[in-house]
Write a structure and sequence with these properties.
This protein is an alpha/beta fold. It has helices at 29-38, 46-51, 54-69, 77-83, 98-104, 117-126, 128-134, 140-143, 148-164, 174-191, 208-215, 230-255, 260-273; strands at 19-22, 43-44, 89-91, 109-114, 197-201. Mean pLDDT is 88; it is low at 256-275.
Length: 275
């Protein structure tokens, strides 16, 4: 069976990779993603995985499985080039593949952002933790049977759970998550030479001044993008599957597989009340 990355067409050209931002999810990465776009960079972030459809969800799952679980051929420069050919800045994903990104794009500007491990873990559980429960619960667990996007969305998140939590239940992963996070932050500083790496701590403050100084561009005359709160995270996640859920609910109603009324209403009501 061919790999998901191999099913992508050959890129028509290749953008030079200018900025690589190594920062785990819930370390200001969505704000960074928006900021880089304001600065004119074609930027890839976890949100692009969801927005780019089934093919990118499959690629992301395949890459994480190979890296974290030893399943399949690991990704190298050839795969990264094909995945990110039309982007010149990548945010968040490099935190999973720091060695691969540094080996593939050593001339890029590297930025590393970290935060207090306890605060990071709490933020993960208040956001991604909810999503990981949702994808293995009604209605998404049932809707994935009749919609390819919902299926791949759920499958990717279940892979992240398995990889990041080392197979442990959500509520039992605090120790391994914090350990891996601390080790990542130490590893990045050893991997990339000091003269090529700009390191920041979120608690010390991070905005236009720090970002623009690191990449050598003027500070724009607009506010730095707002932080991604748990409520905003939930709404964003819901937005990614909204069309697929509508399609799946309509199909389910036609086929009398699940009660169409209530599936969407229940799901979005839960999203709205979650804090």
């Amino acid at each position: 069976m061919s790999r998901a990355i191999d099913r992508l067409p050959t890129p028509p050209y290749m953008r030079e990779k200018k900025v690589i931002i190594i920062a785990r999810s819930r370390t200001g990465t969505l704000s960074l993603y928006k900021a880089m776009k304001i600065l004119g960079y074609k930027t890839y972030h976890g949100a692009e995985i969801m927005a780019s459809g089934v093919s990118h969800l499959e690629i992301a799952e395949e890459a994480v499985a190979a890296k974290c679980l030893g399943q399949g051929k690991p990704y190298g420069k050839a795969e990264l080039d094909k995945w990110f050919w039309d982007y010149d800045a990548i945010v968040e994903l490099p935190a999973i593949f720091p060695e691969e990104f540094y080996a593939a794009y050593p001339n890029a500007t590297f930025i590393h952002v970290e935060r207090d491990p306890d605060k990071w873990y709490k933020s993960i559980m208040n956001t991604l933790g909810h999503s990981l429960k949702d994808v293995d619960s009604w209605p998404l667990k049932q809707l994935r049977l009749i919609d390819d996007y919902v299926d791949k969305f759920c499958s990717f998140h279940l892979m992240v759970h398995k990889a990041w939590w080392h197979g442990l239940p959500l509520e039992e992963g605090e120790a391994v998550l914090k350990k891996d996070y601390i080790e990542l932050n130490k590893h990045v500083k050893k991997l990339i030479p000091k003269e090529k790496l700009h390191t920041f701590n979120l608690e010390d403050g991070f905005g236009w001044e720090q970002l623009c100084s690191a990449i050598g561009v003027p500070v724009p005359d607009v506010p730095y993008p707002q932080a991604n709160t748990p409520v905003q995270f939930d709404k964003m996640q819901a937005g990614f599957v909204r069309k697929a859920i509508r399609k799946a609910v309509a199909l389910a109603a036609t086929l009398v597989l699940v009660p169409a009324i209530g599936v969407a209403a229940w799901y979005y009501r839960k999203i709205q009340v979650r804090v």
